[in-house]
C-alpha cells in the first residue's frame, strides 16, 4: 500500500493539530503499518480512500481513530530499569524524609500510554509496605490517547504485555490471572488514576507534583512545542520536585526553568528560588502550610 | 561471551530464539529434548538454559529436576520458555528451580530483560 506525499502531509497535519506531535519523515515509514488494522476494520481499501473520507468530513469519529493509530504507544513495565533505581535511590529516598510530616506524595506519569509506567511506580511503593505505611500516594497517568487511557484504567494486560519488563516473581505477585490475560491486583490499582491530557494544555494540579515522569514523549514535538510542554511541566512541579526524562532527552536549550540535578543523572529540578542544594534537608513546605 | 542452550522440540522456535540470542551476543547450542539437553550440559555447562516444557523423550520439568539434583547449585540459570502460561505451571516451575519464565509468544525485549534479570545479559 503506497501513500502519496500529499496524503502523508494531511495525516501529519491532523496528528499535529490534535496532539502537537510531528509525523517526521523518520516516522512516516510506519504510517501504512499503523493504519492497516483500522483500514481493515472500516473496510477501506486504500490510504488515499481514507484521506478522502477524512477530508470530506464524512465520519468525524474516524479522524480521532486515525490519530490514535498514528501515536507511538510503545511501553513496558520498568522500561530501561535504571531510571527506576535512580528514582528510588534519590528522589523517593529524599521525599520519604522531606514529606515525613504530610506523608503525601503526588507523582505524574505524563504520556503514560497504556499504563505500564504507572503500575511500575505503584509497585515501587507496594514492595516497601513498611516504609510507606500511612502515606497517601497519588499516581496520575495521563495520555493524549483516549484508547490508551481507557486501557490503562482497567489495569489489564495480555500475556505478551504483562511479561515485558517484569520478572516472573514480580508478575505473579502483583498480577492475577483473568479470563483473557492478567490484571494488576487491587493494591497496585488503588493509588493510581488516569485521565486524558495533552501536554501542551495547562497541567493537572499545578505546582503539586513531587515527581513528574515524561519519558520518550517530547521527542515527537517541534522545538517550540517542546518548550511549551516544559513550561507546563515546570508549572506542575512542586518547588522541590523532580522531572525525569527518557534516556537521551534533555532540557538543555529547551527550558529556562529546569536544570539537571547534579546528584542524579536523568533527573531535573526547577531552577531559581527552588535552589536544589539549599532545599535539600529543608522543611516540608506543604506540611508547614498545613497541606 | 555467555553461552545459552536452547532446549525445544520445535525447530522454528529454536531458530527464532537462536537469532535473538545471537544478536544479544550469546554463544548458542541447541537440544531437541530434555535427555539431549542433559547430555549437552554434561559435556559443557552453559550459563543459561532456555527451556521448553512439553517435549518428547524427556520434558522440560523432568530435565530441570534432574539438573538441579546433580549438585551444580543454581548453575546454570534456567529460563522456562513455554506455552504453559497459567499460574499453576509458573509456580511449579519456580518450585522446581527455574529462575525465570517466558510465556510464548515473546519478543527480543522480553527475552533480553529476562536474561538480564537472571544475571547473564
Structural overview:
The complex is a heterodimer of chains A (291) and B (121). By secondary structure, chain A is α/β, with parallel strands linked by helices. Chain A is 45% helix and 18% strand. In chain A, the strands form two sheets. Chain A has a seven-stranded mixed β-sheet with strand order 6-2-1-7-8-10-9, with helices on both faces. In chain A, strands 3-5-4 form a three-stranded antiparallel β-sheet. In chain A, helix 1 (5-19) packs across helix 5 and helix 3 packs antiparallel against helix 5 (60-70). Chain A is globular and about 60 Å long. The N and C termini of chain A lie far apart (57 Å). In chain A, 39% of the residues are buried. Chain B has 121 residues and is an alpha/beta fold. Helices cover 43% and strands 20% of the residues of chain B. Chain B has helices at residues 11-23, 34-43, 60-69, 87-95, 108-117; strands at 3-7, 27-31, 48-51, 77-82, 100-103. Chain B has a five-stranded parallel β-sheet with strand order 2-1-3-4-5, with helices on both faces. In chain B, helix 2 (34-43) packs parallel to helix 3 (60-69). The mean pLDDT of chain B is 96. The chains are: A alpha/beta (291), B alpha/beta (121). The A-B interface holds A 76, 81, 159-160, 163-165, 167-169, 172, 177 and B 85-87, 90-91, 94, 100-103, 105-107, 109-110, 113-114, 116-117.
Keywords:
heterodimer; A: 291 residues; alpha/beta; Rossmann fold; 2 domains; 10 strands; B: 121 residues; five-stranded parallel sheet
Largest beta sheet of chain A: what is the strand line-up?
A: 6-2-1-7-8-10-9
Low-confidence stretches of chain A: 273-291
Low-confidence stretches of chain B: none
Shape of chain B: globular
CATH topology of the largest domain in chain A: Rossmann fold
CATH superfamily of the largest domain in chain A: Vaccinia Virus protein VP39
Number of helices of chain A: 15
Overall mean pLDDT of chain B stands at 96
How many DSSP E strands of chain A?
10
